[in-house]
Amino acid sequence: MMAGDGKHPGRERSANDNRPPGxxxxxxxxxxxxxxxxxxxxxxxxxxxxxxxxxxxxxQAANDNSAPSEEE
Length: 72
Description:
By secondary structure, the chain is mainly α. The protein contains 1 helix and no strands.
């Protein structure tokens, strides 16, 4: 069945239409809260990783005690 075959007129949806048909709620409040918690934790992890990378790079730059190269 193709979208334009006329068997169910008015029921076709765009590929990017994420709203459920008939204006129904996506989920209950607990589902939304769980999704929000996952998103917040993911963002917090990403921020923490970035902070750790920056801290590690700062330690590497401050500890520049390598032996001088023989070319100098």
